[in-house]
Amino acid sequence: MSPRRLLTRITPLRDDVDPLRPVGGMWWGGPVSVPPMTSWPDTEPAEVELVSGDARLAVDLRGGGLRALTVGDRAVLDGYAAGTVPSGRRGGVLLPWPNRLRDGQWTWEGQQLQLDTAGPGKPAAHGLVTWQRWSVLARHSDAVTVGTVVEARPGYPFRLAAALDHSLAADRLTVTVRVRNAGERAAPFGAGMHPYLAVGATADGGIGDAELTVPARTAIDLDGGLPTGTRRPFDGAIGRIGDRALDDAVTDLVRDDDGWARVSLRGPAGALELAVDGSWPWLQVYSGDTLPEGQRRRSLAVEPMTCPPNALADGVDLVVLEPGETWSGTWTLGWAA
Length: 337
Description:
29 strands, six-stranded antiparallel β-sheet
């Protein structure tokens, strides 16, 4: 059998063909001319707004947090201006861990892990989604769901899908945090949110005039925001805050018959009630003493948390999801005169 011959057909350039235009999906002769690229990503602040009666909520799609909540002229949350960098994780989503992790170091299934920190001796703080873009998954006039994916990375080799469902009524905001393990191995995590409750104080120190009740019986001792390993009784009947500096991680929450625990805060602008369901066994209460001047002690952060500080390292109250499993927790913020 004679060897097969490879035939190459040379097609001459036709006189009626523009050499810079494709014919039949192919380019005929000459170099390809590429137009200059002029597109840029959208750089405007991105958020979604809900309205119910006089209540108005803005959810920041940079980080997924609560940027502002107002009822008429009254600020219910101490928020921040669109497009600005909030201090103190104001309104933030804390995932896949809330609060602080000592030196950013932890171990899982024998693997030593190192998360980014602000420098030697500094903790890894408040998770990985603070500056991450979130997208709108569903929207109605008074409800919206936003979501993002926590991709695996050095220090956190797990993949989580996260969604936040917000529902706004004339007298109440309801937030449900949902997390699904989108990876291929068991994933440990913690979750939290960081709203600053406003009750009418506008000057530094003004939160001292507010009355506070926290439904908790136990606090953990902290040094630099990190657990020392000891616990102490906590009396949540605080009353007038005065000059008391609060930065407490508390647990053993006192729950009503419906299983919810309720924090109450009252000031010149009226009363607020932040309530958490059974998925949130911890709260962090922070009076803002270390915030920048002009924002110090003018509102109270009450943070629903699934676990205490340093939980990734200590293993206290971590949620562990198998691939495909989900977790959810709901909290509400209500307001009255």
